[in-house]
Amino acid sequence: MASKMTEMGSNLKKISLCMIVRNEENNLRRCLASAQGFVDEMVVVDTGSTDSTVSIAREFGARIFCLTWQDDFSLARNFALAQARYDWLLVLDADDELRWQEVDKGELLGLGFDIYICRIINCAGSPLFQRETTHPQPRLFKKNAVKGYSGALHEQLVYQDSVKIAVAPMSIIHYGYFSPGEKDRTSRNTAILEKQVEKEPDNQFARYTLAMERFRQGRFEQACSEFAKLFNDVDRMGRGLVTELVRAYSLALMSLGDYEQAMDVTGWGRQHFPAYTDLVYLQARICYQMGDWVEAINLFRLCLEMGESPVDFCTAVGVGNRLPAAAIGDIFSRCGDYDKAVYWLAQAQSYYQEDISPLLKLTVAAVRRKGSEKFYSEIDKVCKIPREYWQHLVQALLEVGEAAAARKVLNDVGNLGVYHDYVLALVEFSQRQIKACKSRLEKMLKTATDAADMEAAAAQLCICCWVKSDWAGAARYLTLLRGSLARVYVMYHNTLTQSEEEHKGLKREDFQSILHILRQMLYANKIGLAKIALSLWTYQLNALEVVLLAQTLLRFGQFRWALSILQQEEQPEAEIEFLYGKACLACGKAGRAIKIFKNLVLEQPGFMPAYMGLVWGNLALAHKASCQGDLKNKAFQLQLDHWLRTGYLSDYA
User: Fold this and answer.
1) Residue pLDDT, tens place only, 290-342
2) Which residues pair with 174 in a beta bridge?
3) CA-CA distance, 280 to 291, in Å (whole number)?
4) Of 550, 546, 539, 476, residue with least CA distance to 510
5) Rounded to whole angstroms, how far apart are CA atoms 464 and 441?
């Protein structure tokens, strides 16, 4: 009897890891390794794996159970919980990684709480360009403190009455959005949720998760329609679901370009959840999109003052530090104020070294501030750049037409390993050394072992061949391309060769590939080939595509082409109108440009670049009039003094 009591007492401080898995050989080893030392047993329920998932679980000494999959996550999850031997249960998914190393397990389990909420960090983007969101979720709990899980998908843990809940001092990294099977899972999830909502039309959580799946699929109108219905019924929702709904609904509205409604929703959210920094950040992004960059900067600065959102909110990691700092830096860079751009982008990079997005923008701003020979000093103040980052820096410089700086990076850094030949070939191409570029890429193609490297080399070799009208050579390299890249490149090749061969139509996500071909042809000074690339795009250009295209054309001196694109916009956004003014100015139409910039100032007084446009325009007029002795435009000087006094140009004083 005494030994039985001792065993029961020891079980109170032991943890069973409970998992359900299927075909998770790419993730499971990382997950189980992360939980070793924290859990005392591993329960793995397999629902039909056909890969090495079960073998990997055996390597870690897991107790393995098999269960036929029935499109019901709660059923499978509850089956796993029932197999656990110990009183404490930890629930992980195969694409999770537990971070517990600084936690004293015995102390944590002895604090008197029944359920611990863990911070789930969802990783998206790519390992070097990370976008992370976090949300709270109960993952560690006593067996007798819960009734089990409910819901066929995105299952919810149902608590017993009068349980004590606390936030655990540990986090769980979720890598699911890096997984190549994410699209398949989204389709599966949608089908399960549609069945659940049909059976339970009043289940608000199921309706919310279905709307979220549609949002992830890019079906923004359907998502917004469901979000709107839920938003009108928030009184029946719990606080956690309401905060998630406000954030998701606002993002969906922004994706549709309905900025006024998004501002109303975030405004309501700020009234009810004043500590929710994400909503302030979203309002700043809305102001930016609507052309009020002054107010955007004010709101981004407010985010920095507020800091990160509380841990019990669904939040984007960095809304209280690196994201607003990077956004402010981006605004100043777009205004041509590279001193301030470098400062703010350096601040953003210092917050989080692993995400190199601010670093790439910082590099471009530093080049434009100091020139291609002296920009290193700006970057060195922020961080020592790991070797694997340099290839991305070179490509970022090439994308904005800074070929000289890209060449200097390669000369100074030395060999970049597997990437060196590829980025050096890109630099050679940008400097119209087509033969050298082609030779280097062919060598790389023979030695490359990674499929992605081979495809990148083959794609650039196609461009080299097109520039030299080597149609047979291009056709040979096209066979090495896959997916969306093959779709775009084959269509372009068939257009150049006037082939009647049938090919798949382009998709909306193919615009970046079209823009890349166009940019490469501009580097090679093949304007006709660049125009053929753009002619493939049969979709109506949206605002973002117009901005990206116009910026590219202006950078490469294609002012009249840019002008023709921008003139087609009937109701342009502020940034498009500004680019139109820049194009007019570049084409020698200073008077027309000044009129555009003045209208922007009147209609969008918070759009900072408009004031800089007026400075450029009046300087152009003053230069034009200098032969008549009119070296100072007094009217303009008076107007500039007025702007300085009213604060519109205080950041430029």
Assistant:
1) 888 889 999 999 999 999 998 888 888 889 998 999 899 888 888 777 778 88
2) 96, 122
3) 17
4) 539
5) 10
